[in-house]
Amino acid sequence: MLEELLLLAHVVGATVLFGTGAGIAFFMVMAHRTRNPVLIAHVAATVVVADTVFTATAAILQPVTGYLLARIIGWELSEGWIALSLLLYVVTGLFWLPVVWIQIRLRDLARAAVASGSRLPRAYFSLYRIWFACGFPAFSAVVGILWLMLTKPSITLF
């Protein structure tokens, strides 16, 4: 029973990470395309909350549920597909952490533009390009993790 509950929690966590990441990216891109500081400020504020509530929570719980699940099932963390999943998880985090800070800055820059009645500053567009670029390796790594979890291929790393 515990194994099934951990598996459910782990799959739900993976789904939340994937779905929230894809949703955040979609809404941020769509808001950015309008070049409307009011809309961007609103969407970016919502994105920051969603990342805090959903992504951060799932990101903390995923390794916990994964570790406990591996222990119960009897998998070694050094098993190829698990070790590669953990490596990809670190890669995802290395791209996600700057994105969180960038989203906060994008929100603040859009709010400042709204408050002053001005257009979005150059800094906004520079940060947005970095935010956009960080999404590709992070998203690809998550897709890779999902594939590894589903297929559990025999991989020799060591």
Question: Layout of SSEs?
Answer:
Elements: H1 2-34, H2 37-73, H3 80-116, H4 122-151
Helix pairs in contact: 1-2, 1-4, 2-3, 3-4
What is the typical, i.e. mean, pLDDT?
95
Q: How many strands appear in the DSSP assignment? A: 0
Shape annotation: elongated
State the secondary-structure class. mainly alpha
Task: Name the helix and strand elements from N-terminus to C-terminus, one letter apiece.
Answer: HHHH
Please describe what this structure looks like.
The chain has 158 residues and is an all-alpha fold. Helix content is 87%, strand content 0%. It contains 4 helices and no strands. The protein has helices at 2-34, 37-73, 80-116, 122-151. α1 (2-34) runs antiparallel to α2 (37-73) and α3 (80-116) packs antiparallel against α4 (122-151). The longest helix has 37 residues, at 37-73. The chain is elongated, with a radius of gyration of 18 Å. The mean pLDDT is 95.
Which characteristics define this entry?
single chain; 158 residues; mainly alpha
Q: What's the short story on this structure?
A:
By secondary structure, the protein is an all-alpha fold. It is 87% helix and 0% strand.
